[in-house]
Amino acid sequence: MHIKHVTCRKLLAGSLLMTVHATAVGAFDWTTSAKVSVIEPSYMPGWISFQIGASVGTCPSGTWLQWPAQGADQASRIANAQAVYSTLLTAMMANRTVIFYGVNAGCKVEHIHLIAM
Prior knowledge:
This protein is an alpha+beta fold. Helix content is 32%, strand content 30%.
């Protein structure tokens, strides 16, 4: 039982680390800390739409933010979308704060951090 618990923790930690894929630091229009309120996975694996409880840049609170799947090939983009979806769902269900970095054009999120708070 103990081994199973440790393995699940390592798997979750690994999937959360996979979400750290984005453009260069400093290329963002905004950054904010907020909680995920709604996730719309219907467009996966192409992108994930979601809402947070805050306004960001020119995107008012309640706007659908977009996470475009990232990667060099289709398999990488699918894996990226799954990892980010997993992270957003974990954050929403655990009521955890996420740091989002994004651009105003298209209300696009390009980088996320799930933090322990």
